[in-house]
Design goal:
By secondary structure, the chain is α/β, with parallel strands linked by helices. Helix content is 39%, strand content 18%. It is globular.
């Protein structure tokens, strides 16, 4: 049995799409073939993931010790060496005074004082950009290493030159959408041939079962629009609100429910109040089971600027909901434009026009739902792709750089 370590920045329910995708993977991976350990560098959230078949470690103390804010360190200076305090002062200066940093800047300062993980594995997987990649590469001993990208590297804000050494030295790079293969190989020509697509696992039966849960859902006879995702700038919900205002001004009767939480919540609430959208847009916050809302909605909208693989679009299609999404890089690999949904520009009028058309043209709406029903996405090969990649890697000769 192969010993496999997944390193992730955080793990739990209701955090974000990447964490949910990892949980879906862990719930479906073959634990008779792999002895799985998951290291979540940060502590467990309120809704932690647990499994009888997988060892899960929440919070890696040497890492948490070094990322503790400097103001907290001041209370326990005796517990830190002079060099550690110097490093933390530099981190504070970069993040607080310069107000500009990359994960690489901070990792270079903190890494020398973070102990390596004390067990060797056959395979280590750094799941996610940034610290998960850096830790799996620098602090874990394993025969083989896979760096698993859960998002668009170009749009991540990371220093691409800094990240180069990690992706070049990895045995393989896993991406969740085929559009990222070409992207990665264009950024780093040195890794051509070792970037592989492993799509997210979608637990169809579980989602359908959860969708049967009864909810209070009242749209007063109007059209029900749904969006799901964290309230961050990258999800671009201000565009959704601009489109909602246009629909309101056109006299459309609708309710737009947005499920998610995040740092943009206060800003979005302010816009809703300023534009008089209180009766049209609901920020529902964090809902651990959003699937009854999918089942009860007429349209699904996604306004992201970038995505790794748009998990929510694939989930929406399970319910045959007409989808309107912005044209981020991987959108076209999920949505057959004009058939399973529509891909629009990052313009509020374009978005509003397409929604207005679907609301007014029931024949078009039904046509899209019918297409989704007759052309479901095949998820049966997703786990097989991972098994094949692991088998391929483990059959190679040892890479000394990973020891």
């Amino acid at each position: 049995m192969l010993s496999v370590l997944f390193v992730t920045a955080a793990l739990g329910y209701g955090i974000g799409g990447s964490e949910k995708a990892l949980i879906d993977l862990l719930n479906n991976i073959n634990t008779e073939k792999y002895d799985i350990t998951v290291l979540s560098l940060n502590p467990a959230p309120p809704k932690r993931f647990s499994s009888d078949k997988i060892k899960i470690i929440y919070g890696y103390d040497p890492y948490l010790r070094m990322i503790t804010p400097f103001r907290s360190v001041l209370k326990d200076l005796k517990d830190y060496t002079r060099e550690e305090i110097k490093a933390k002062l530099k981190v504070a200066f970069i993040t607080r005074i310069k107000k500009k940093s990359t994960s690489g800047d901070l990792w270079d300062l903190e890494s020398p004082f973070i102990e390596s993980f004390n067990k060797r594995f056959d395979l280590a997987i750094g799941y996610g950009l940034g610290v998960a990649t850096f830790f799996a590469s620098d602090k874990v001993s394993a025969m083989r290493k896979i760096l698993w990208m859960d998002s668009d590297l170009n749009a991540s804000g990371l220093d691409l030159e800094y990240c180069k050494k990690y992706y070049v030295s990895a045995d393989a790079v896993a991406v969740v959408d085929k559009s990222h293969i070409k992207q990665m190989e264009s950024i780093y020509p040195e890794i051509e041939g070792k970037v592989f697509e492993i799509r997210n696992i979608i637990p169809v039966d579980e989602i359908k079962r959860k969708a049967a849960e009864k909810i209070s859902f009242n749209v007063n006879g109007g059209v029900s629009i749904l969006s799901v995702g964290r309230l961050t700038k990258g999800k671009n919900y201000e565009l959704a609100l601009k489109a909602a205002k246009i629909l309101k001004d056109r006299g459309v009767d609708f309710v737009w429910n947005i499920i998610g939480f995040g740092p943009e919540e206060k800003h979005l609430k302010k816009i809703i109040n300023q534009w008089g959208l209180q009766s049209f847009v609901n920020l529902l916050g964090q809902i651990l089971n959003p699937y009854p809302y999918y089942a009860a909605s007429d349209l699904f909208v996604h306004t992201s600027i970038y995505e790794g693989s748009p998990l929510v679009l694939e989930e929406a299609m399970l319910f045959n909901i007409p989808i309107v999404t912005t044209g981020f890089a991987s959108a076209a690999n999920v949505i057959n434009n004009g058939n399973s949904g529509f891909i629009v520009s990052f313009d509020e009028t374009d978005l509003a026009d397409r929604l207005y058309e679907l609301i007014k043209n029931k024949e078009l709406k039904n046509k899209i739902s019918d297409y989704q029903s007759k052309n479901p996405i095949d998820y049966s090969k997703n786990l097989l792709e991972l098994d094949e990649l692991i088998l391929k890697l483990m059959s190679r000769k040892k890479n000394p750089s990973n020891s």
